[in-house]
Amino acid sequence: MLFARRGTTRDIPPIPPPPAGRGGEEGWVQWVIVCIALLFSIGTSVLSWDAMRTYDLAPRFHWPDETTNWYFADRVAHGESLVVPESRNATVGNLIHPRTANVRSDGAIVPGAYLGLPLWYGLVGRLIGSRAMLLLTPLLAGAALLGFARIVAVFWDRRTALIATLLLALHVTIWMFTATAFLPNIPFLALLLMGLAAVLHKRGHVAWWLCGGLLIGFALTFRTHEALWVLTLAGAIAWRQRATVAQGVAAVVGLVLPFIPILILNAQLYGSPFTTGYALLHAGGAPPTEFAGSGGMIRAFLFPFGVDIVASLQRFWQYMVVPYWWFMALAIVGLFTASRKLQAASCKREGMITVLLSAWLMVFYGSWTLADPLVRATNVFTISYARYWLPMVFLLAPWAATGFLRIVSRVGRLRQIIAMLLVLGIALVSSQQIVTGTTEGLAQQRRGIVEHRTRARAVIAETPDDAIIVSHRMDKTFFPERAVVFVSEEPDADFLRHLAVLVETAPVYWYAPSRPAVVGFAFTSVGTMPFGEQLYRMGLL
After folding, report:
1. How far apart are CA 132 and CA 49, in angstroms?
2. Of 145, 232, 434, 489, which shows the fewest CB atoms inside 10 Å?
3. Pairing outcome for strands 534-540 and 508-512
4. Strands 468-471, 483-486: parallel, antiparallel or unpaired by DSSP?
5. pLDDT tens across 127-161, in order?
6. What is the DSSP letter of 19?
7. Sheet containing strand 483-486, strands side by side
8. Cα end-to-end distance, the chain, whole Å
């Protein structure tokens, strides 16, 4: 993607031609890209509007990961520690915590992922207010489109940059994961793209390389395990730009600086600077079960989830090709078009870089078996595979733009009409999927969030402040106002034994659509909750 020479689409007629007058094509294209980024930021903030106006509860989210990320970012915004003591965990096997948070051997609840998002969002929240943090991801996504357009304009041309940015702004998965304001994927990509754009600044001053390194470093604190391909790509760009020693040193210094507070916090929270929230602290710092079969340091680094080519291809087809056939078709046309040009040798090399990196990302995440069967059964646009493959979407976007321009250039005088019809058709299909399509649309997500708030208010009204709510998948509904315990559909004997100890020492409630089929406990109905669901006070038989 990033090694194409300017002018690879120069023989394709402009679509549409820029208006005559001051500024010419350059000014016209830049303003259109800015407008696209601005409208995208406004549109993707829709799920945050209600939460910003709701003050009797903490914000509710569609993803449990968002709930815990918000909670810890909010603590930072209010000057509180990232360590949340929970003394009741000491005798109950550390049951009390949201399922996406981590819990230490001493029972304290700590972040369950990389610290970049809660730390940096929280520090910004101290300046602008914790509710305003809900707008940070949409704003960063708009900046990501601008940084991306700058990169494509440097290595391709401005028309390709415009079309590629427009295609990204119409991509359903990018919309969905920008609207989910407290997941790290979009902030990671936004900071990375802005960092790469900074080192490509035409003046090339050392300060720009320092700024670029800082932004890339901040990006990696959000998703550190992306470092292999990110640093390889950044190094290749530095080589391509013929970076001086001073520029390289500035970039490395900038890259390292954001990790200094992260390493200090890792040591304080997890016991080692190089241990992260993904380690199962209550199991002695063991890695998550998905990593158990990776085998060998090199393979664990390159393919931490193992290598399953067949499963990766199946998941890629199911979650990248089928939902976005138009995008993939355009990208294939673009790659084929580039390989047929006069600069065939360089274009083939550039296309090969895109294909190889995309293939590696496909196997890297496609070999992982998603643990949640409900998500596997119901999600397509918002499944975790889709958000982990977002870098691939950005890699392929310039080729999709090249394919778009090539198709339109073949229709002669009708090219402007065909271009507008293609964009309109893609926009109509995408907007329907984004807003109302399936159970993943933003309208359905908003209804679900409203229902979470309704349940939370009802349960809070019926339970004391020190109550513990046991539920399956409802921890994101009642936390942080109430302590929570996540129970699987078939709890094991060890869980039930610890739960019995907890019931003897604390006010424990069970929230479920119907009476739970769990032996050894007495369930006293507190009353019917919203949507016909039930709340029970738990006791021992």
Report:
1. 10
2. 489
3. antiparallel
4. parallel
5. 999 999 999 999 999 999 999 999 999 888 899 99
6. P
7. 483-486, 468-471, 508-512, 534-540, 521-528
8. 65
